[in-house]
Amino acid sequence: MSNTLRPYLAAVRHTLTAAICLENFASQTVEKHNVPEIEAQTSREVLLNPLTISRNENEQVHIEPSVNSVRISIRIKQADDIERILCHKFTRFLMMRAENFIILRRKAIPGYDISFLVTNFHTEQLLRHKLVDFIIHFMEEVDREISEMKLSLNARARIVAESYLQQFV
Hints:
The protein is an alpha+beta fold. The protein has 5 helices and 4 strands; from the N terminus they run ααβββαβαα. The chain has helices at 5-19, 37-40, 81-96, 120-125, 128-165; strands at residues 51-56, 59-65, 69-75, 114-119. The protein has a 4-stranded antiparallel sheet with strand order 1-2-3-4. A hairpin with a 2-residue loop joins β1 and β2 (59-65). α1 runs antiparallel to α5 (128-165) and α3 (81-96) crosses α5. The longest helix is centred in the C-terminal third of the chain and has 38 residues, at 128-165. It is elongated and about 75 Å long. It starts with a helix and ends with a helix.
């Protein structure tokens, strides 16, 4: 992990730890319903101030807490068009399998690449610090995966180009 990434991830970790203090909260508009208030946004008094933690303009984490849920949106670093395409394909692949990841949303917030939704039911079933560790680990690994895919793609393109140009020699 690079020296510039460490403080960024530490800030995200501390903010998520503070934001994932969720409690059971019934809906104020519909009786006997309990929906994530950050998704429904029916009453402003249960929504907390959203936070954006930026490493730079291309890498950001947007945390939207409420009384019974937290939505975490991540913008992944994309330096060029190849990384943009790889990131889109990779996140789309993950979001299509969102039911296997429990806290992953099927659709990201506009302007971000991937989003997670943690509700009070998740914090009752899962350990809070493990949820935070999973999101931090995901942020570390997604960069590494996209870089490895880019290297693999470039190596494959080089081999194809060499085999194609062998015809003309």
